[in-house]
Specification:
The chain is an alpha/beta fold. The protein is 31% helix and 26% strand. A 4-stranded mixed β-sheet has the order 22-23-1-24. It has a 4-stranded mixed β-sheet with strand order 2-15-17-16. A 4-stranded mixed β-sheet has the order 4-5-3-14, covered by helices on one side. A hairpin with a 2-residue loop joins β8 and β9. α5 packs parallel to α6. The longest helix is centred in the middle third of the chain and has 14 residues. It is elongated. It starts with a strand and ends with a strand.
């Protein structure tokens, strides 16, 4: 086991290149199994989730290899249609394989996915969408069994703009005869990324990034392509929030401001200063920031739920009170109890977190229980007085690659150690 050891109180300064978006590369990898060719994903970060997804894809008969930071997936001889529990149980994103496996192999057996425990995160929206296209779906003994014998294009309106369901239905529809329209589709940049990749492989998708996505089914995808996924907007947002909490001046490369527009607006109102270019964000933060006042998580382009824990950490050291409302997951305040060990003034009720900013937090021994909550504890440790240890590093590694090295590049004092 490992933990992070952090000495707080240092301002962050410097330049950092933002890694590949985890929430983009995982569905892209899933989609690659539909391609009867070779895909080279360029500039890919080796998150632990990426390595697990690689093993799952290999279990289906694809050949996965690395050439430096290029991830190469050859799915020409794909043979399997089952994702067993020992692999799916390690990765929430394994659910993305349901649509692609079903589309390519016409049958699928997928174990219920695992991942961070931040709420129920039901996948019934995914299943209902596939059923609307004519798939036969049976939920039995912890597995999802699906067949595509009678699948045809059709219209489906999501009752909630779920990113995962939008992506899964879109992927399944690519190799389904006829036209499919997804209404109330999620608009996240990662969905646009996925559509761009599939179109490059020969798909016919339009409207990605809007509330209505149209897919014209094709017989097969056979082009061998190279594709560079976008930068991770959640990592970019995490670094901006860390700098806001600690003070300093940082420049983020491979980061688009429009992907974090709602967060940047909040930080600007709180006295942070920005200089923005096409793929570069420069932020200055000096002195104690004002509280945001209120924050509600929302689907894109609103404040993402994946930045809520990090925002809570910042508000704990900001001037004033803030009400943070979590609208997407019912169990995403587990980090609050750990922050209170550091002196944070937090009150929780149902899906609402009320923070009263302190002049300072104090180092403590804390433990992450999920990915983004772990990032929040790191931010708190960087801003706190004294030393902080953060256990549960395996959660943080799922979406931040060698986070301690990135923080050190910005002048923070953080190291990884065995326990």
């Amino acid at each position: 086991m490992e933990r992070f050891f952090i000495q707080g109180g240092k301002a962050l300064r410097g330049e950092l290149k933002i890694d590949t978006a985890k929430n983009s590369i995982l569905p892209l990898m899933a989609a690659s199994i539909m391609v009867e060719g070779v895909t080279t994903f360029q500039n890919v970060t080796r998150y632990s989730d990426v390595l697990v997804m690689s093993k799952i894809i290999e279990s289906l008969g694809a050949v996965v290899s690395w050439d430096g930071d290029s991830l190469i997936i050859d799915s020409r001889e794909l043979s399997g249609s089952s994702v067993l529990n020992e692999l799916a149980g390690k990765l929430r994103a394994s659910v993305f394989l349901l649509g692609p496996v079903l589309a390519r192999q016409k049958t699928a057996k997928i174990a219920y996915p695992g991942g961070c425990e931040i709420g129920l995160r039901p996948i019934d929206i995914h299943l209902d969408g596939l059923k609307a296209l004519g798939a036969k779906v049976i939920d039995k003994n912890g597995y999802i069994y699906a067949s595509a014998d009678k699948m045809r294009g059709g219209d489906y309106a999501l009752r909630f703009a779920s990113v995962g369901a939008t992506e899964n239905i879109m992927m399944a529809a690519v190799l389904t005869k006829g036209q499919t329209r997804i209404y109330n589709a999620a608009k996240e940049p990662e969905i646009v990324d996925l559509a761009c990749y599939l179109n490059k492989c020969g798909a016919k998708i339009s409207g990605a990034g809007s509330s209505v996505i149209t897919i014209e089914g094709v017989k097969k995808l056979s082009r061998s392509v190279k594709f560079r996924p976008l930068g991770d907007r959640i990592i970019a947002g995490t670094m901006l929030l860390a700098c806001a909490a600690c003070g300093g001046e940082i420049t983020l490369k491979n980061a688009k401001a429009e992907h974090n527009e709602a967060l940047i607006a909040k930080l600007s109102q709180s006295a942070c200063q920005f200089d923005i270019k096409s793929d570069k964000i420069k932020m200055r933060s000096y002195g104690r920031l004002k509280s945001f006042g209120s924050v509600e998580t929302a689907t894109y382009p609103g404040i993402p739920t994946d930045l809520q824990p990090q925002i809570v950490a910042l508000q704990c050291v900001s001037d004033g009170c803030c009400m943070i409302v979590e609208n997407l997951f019912e169990s995403r305040f587990k980090h609050a109890a750990e922050l209170m060990k550091m002196g944070a003034d937090i009150t929780l009720k149902n899906n609402v977190c009320l923070t009263r900013g302190r002049d300072k937090l104090y180092g403590a021994e804390v433990k992450a229980s999920d990915l983004r909550g772990g990032a929040a504890l790191v931010i708190a440790g960087l801003a706190a007085e004294g030393y902080t240890t953060v256990e549960g590093v395996e959660f943080i590694d799922r979406g931040y690659y060698e986070l301690e090295k990135q923080i050190c590049l910005l002048g923070g004092d953080m190291k990884r150690e065995k326990i």
